[in-house]
Amino acid sequence: MELLLLLDACRRADAARVTAVVPYFGYARQDRRNRAGESLGSRVVADAIAGAGADRLIVVDPHTKSLEAMCPIPVEVLTAVPELAAAGKRGLGEVVVVAPDLGAVKLAEHCAAPLRAPVAVVRKTRQTGSTVRAEELVGDVESKPVLIVDDMISTGGTIEAAAHVLLEHGALSGITVVAAHGLLVDPAADRLAALPLRSLFVTDSLAQRASAAFPLEVHSIAPLLADAIGRLHQNLSVDDLLARS
């Protein structure tokens, strides 16, 4: 609501151009109806932001690939995960980048390319909102350090399931996980604490508290956002900052 009111105030003040910067687009996961009676929260929020006066929207690693298509104004979808992955790889040597589900494959490939690392993929089935079963691994992780990449960690179910499959296939203990958004809602803390994590890297798109249960490193996305905003206002390309779908 604060964002919508600010957009309206800028529009009524006759601003030449208004850009809404929303690092964590909180309703992006509600991009389809799984049963009758549900809403499309991502579409509702996108329409509200546009209707309040925004000319452009900047988001970081939204969960849905369709946000740009459903939004009535131009959307710049930035990604912070490759930089996190580069930080997470330090000291690991020949690492394997892992997509914890099929939806993260493109993101894993985007991160693996500059690292010159192979990619492995875990196939999962979501049984409930917080329970996930990993069923299959494509790729070789035996006796190798692994780096799991994803756009967000909510309950930790996907990471937990992927980690167990990787360890069963011989991956080295001391798993590194990177994700743009660390929601870390219950029971994420307990799940992550039970895993042999080397480190968990997230951004400050959401407020984070230091945890004694698992090693957490928080990286600022302020430089990424500042770079994108500066380029847009100078009419320069932001192509190398964008997420790859």
TrEMBL record:
Coiled coil (residue ranges): none
Pfam families referenced in this protein's UniProt entry, alphabetically: Pribosyltran, Pribosyltran_N
Signal sequence, renumbered to the chain: none
Segments forming domain Phosphoribosyltransferase: 92-179
Top-level taxon: Bacteria
Keywords annotated in UniProt: Nucleotide biosynthesis
Ranges for domain Ribose-phosphate pyrophosphokinase N-terminal: 1-53
Keyword Zinc: no
Record keyword Cell cycle present: no
Family under the similarity heading: Belongs to the ribose-phosphate pyrophosphokinase family.
Name by which UniProt lists this protein: Ribose-phosphate pyrophosphokinase
Organism: Saccharopolyspora erythraea (Streptomyces erythraeus)
Organism phylogeny: Bacteria, Bacillati, Actinomycetota, Actinomycetes, Pseudonocardiales
